[in-house]
Amino acid sequence: xxxxxxxxxxxxxxxxxxxxxxxxxxxxxxxxxxxxxxxxxxxxxxxxxxxxxxxxxxxxxxxxxxxxxxxxxxxxxxxxxxxxxxxxxxxxxxxxxxxxxxxxxxxxxxxxxxxxxxxxxxxxxxxxxxxxxxxxxxxxxxxxxxxxxxxxxxxxxxxxxxxxxxxxxxxxxxxxxxxxxxxxxxxxxxxxxxxxxxxxxxxxxxxxxxxxxxxxxxxxxxxxxxxxxxxxxxxxxxxxxxxxxxxxxxxxxxxxxxxxxxxxxxxxxxxxxxxxxxxxxxxxxxxxxxxxxxxxxxxxxxxxxxxxxxxxxxxxxxxxxxxxxxxxxxxxxxxxxxxxxxxxxxxxxxxxxxxxxxxxxxxxxxxxxxxxxxxxxxxxxxxxxxxxxxxx
Length: 392
Known about the structure:
The chain is mainly alpha-helical. It has helices spanning 12-33, 37-59, 62-81, 83-104, 118-148, 160-163, 173-180, 182-213, 221-228, 230-233, 236-250, 256-279, 285-292, 297-326, 329-334, 342-352, 357-386. The chain has two domains: 1-111; 182-386, MetI-like (MetI-like fold, Orthogonal Bundle), CATH 1.10.3720.10. The chain is globular.
């Protein structure tokens, strides 16, 4: 039995159908892979329901049941599609074994309030399942791209060697092509030149706008805020077309300055929103105290206000940098061949030549984005600690 003390035994009429539903979802993926979706759903539901009943009502021992189911599905997966399917089958076996006893012994109620009704308990877990499904739906394309970037062949699909985990099926040649190809390196250089300059402008103008709009005496604050964050709301193709016609009339179309200003306009809303959120908990008595001590507005801003809102400013700057570095629509309208950025080069590669080097670039960008978002989260927590919204 489990080391945890069971709360109560759950009736068979409850947990067996739930396990069957989960088995049907798993069978959906297996059946789709074999072009037999309906058969996979039905077979998965019936098989998992029968296994859950046998484990809980006949064997009644959790650990042997889980290990037995893990070995059974691993062997079945290996016989069907080799080592990768064996790994997936073993993982499914371990998960379903735990899930069956988790429901059977009532352990699902251990960490929720005891007064919740069955309907509330159902919604409690259904909500988490829905959130998990959305997360998987969003992350799955990224998880597919990353291993494909190590493909030894010039294909956008998993080769038989990759599926067998054969070392000959994996290679770093697409990464070498990225670092040695002058077109890719020129695109990286352009992105590195444009994104930091656009970020500096976004941070400067966005921070000043957020501080000004946080003052209660500013007229039409909501209307001004709506106008400033409109690039975030208006479809990007409309903004890009408008910038093209405007810049072509004033001579900035196809110039470095034009691309930087366009990306700065796209990044300013992110800075305004993050800095405004930071200013919500700001104590304005600190600035008044600094003024009473003889500090001027500039000194007060840099010595009192800026250190407290700095996490929000940096977070907004990181979002502005990501927006500029990953943007492709506006630069297609406003830029020229001399400002071909990394996303533009990726777009061109997809349209003119199908090269797996794009997958290597995408994997690198995903890693950079994860690092930047981690920094944003750390800064958010630091900002909350500075404002006393969370414990140190």
